[in-house]
Design goal:
Elements: E1 29-35, H1 39-55, E2 59-64, H2 70-75, E3 82-85, H3 92-100, E4 107-110, E5 116-119, E6 135-146, E7 150-155, H4 164-175, E8 185-187, H5 188-201, H6 210-220, E9 222-234, H7 241-253, H8 262-277, H9 286-294, H10 296-310, H11 319-328, H12 332-346, H13 350-361
Parallel strand pairs: 1-2, 1-4, 2-3, 6-9
Antiparallel strand pairs: 4-8, 5-9, 6-7, 6-8
Length: 363
């Protein structure tokens, strides 16, 4: 069933965004959106997110680096619930950081400028102000759609496990290969700490890292389900095998990586999570972090190593042999260092970069 969200007309009389119903001081949620699309192509995303924020006494923060002069002229001053940042920085990551750093509420939610946000009034919303501290966030109902085909599937679930490792396993199982859970409502402090660390220290800072970031976030705490919040994810980049290949290739090349890097991605997913988990400034005490590294994080790294062994003919010479050696290693740090050596075979310079990444976690 389609969950299309009504978008206020740009020209009609119903396009009169109102002042939100509560004080900024009482707001608990900010939705932040880096936007590179022009006015026409980003209109649906901004309009629906703004209507949502007005209804929920939240703030929408848009960082615009589109260069479209009509866009700020249209949106500036449209609503008390909108914070519009004109002339955003040029890259996707820096533009996202520009918006995220303006968040002043205890919760935030990222959204893309081709997605949509709405409300299902049939469900009672989760009260963020009284959300138990054991919960790191709230997952909306996700409606995956294509502009020319409508809704494809909807997904809604909570993460209820008591331990970080079991929460990680639960997210892997319930997400079923769909990482739209990344676009959830999270507590600002742990989310911002993780993203700032990633932006400052990750070897590539690539957009392909969304899975490992989501794994870290969902391991931090339980996640409630709130189907009253409808996040519509535009899956145009994943609509066919050709589109998937093009999307993946773009995410690699924009990070300065070669096309054959795909074979290394699963390994680096586990290695990235290794670093996120053991950050001294992170969410876990040393004992909990070590349990994760020896358990679920190690399993993810082994999954990537096994993929290299299975696809030895598509990997640089020597990569499969090193992967087999790493699979036998039980010390998580030694396994990580062997993985850094494998990464070097794919992209010269990654070994040193990944060693420095691990060192940054200890500071």
């Amino acid at each position: 069933m389609s969950r299309a969200i009504d978008k206020p007309s740009r020209n009609g009389p119903n396009y009169l965004f109102r002042e939100s119903g509560g004080s900024r001081l009482n707001r608990h949620l900010s939705v932040y959106m880096p936007s590179n699309r022009n006015l026409e192509r980003s209109y649906g995303a901004i309009a629906t997110a703004l209507a949502f924020c007005e209804s929920r006494n939240a703030t929408l923060i848009v960082s615009d680096n589109s260069g479209d002069p009509e866009k700020p002229r249209f949106w500036q001053g449209r609503s008390e619930a909108l914070q519009y940042l004109e002339n955003g920085p040029p890259t996707a990551l820096s533009n996202a950081l520009n918006a995220m750093r303006k968040v002043e509420t205890p919760f935030l939610m990222p959204i893309g400028d081709d997605d949509e946000l709405g409300i299902d009034a049939a469900h009672t919303p989760v009260d963020l102000a009284s959300l138990d501290e054991n919960y790191v966030g709230v997952r909306p109902l996700t409606d995956i759609f294509l502009p020319d085909r409508g809704s494809l599937l909807s997904r809604s679930f909570s993460i209820d496990s008591e331990t970080p490792g079991m929460r990680l396993r639960e997210y892997v199982m319930k997400s079923d290969g769909d990482n739209t859970g990344y676009y959830s409502i999270f507590r600002t402090r742990p989310y911002r700490s993780l993203i700032e660390f990633f932006a400052a220290h990750h070897p590539t800072r690539g957009a392909y890292c969304d899975w490992q970031l989501a794994f870290a976030l969902f391991s931090f705490g339980k996640v409630a389900s709130d189907p009253s919040v409808v996040f519509r994810y535009n899956a145009s980049g994943w609509a066919s095998a050709e589109a998937i290949a093009a999307t993946n290739l773009k995410s690699y090349t924009e990070a300065g990586l070669p096309q054959h890097f795909e074979r290394c991605w699963l390994l680096l997913r586990g290695m990235d999570l290794h670093v996120f988990v053991c950050r001294r400034s992170g969410e876990f005490p040393v004992g909990v972090a070590n349990t994760l590294l020896a358990g679920e994080v190690g399993d993810l790294t082994d999954y990537g190593l096994a993929d290299i062994v299975r696809n030895a003919e598509n990997c640089p010479p020597g990569a499969a042999d090193m992967a087999q050696k790493a699979l036998k290693e039980r010390n998580p740090t030694v396994k990580y260092l062997i993985g850094a050596g494998i990464a070097e075979l794919f992209v010269p310079g990654l070994k040193v970069a990944y060693i420095n990444f691990l060192k940054a976690a200890a500071r």
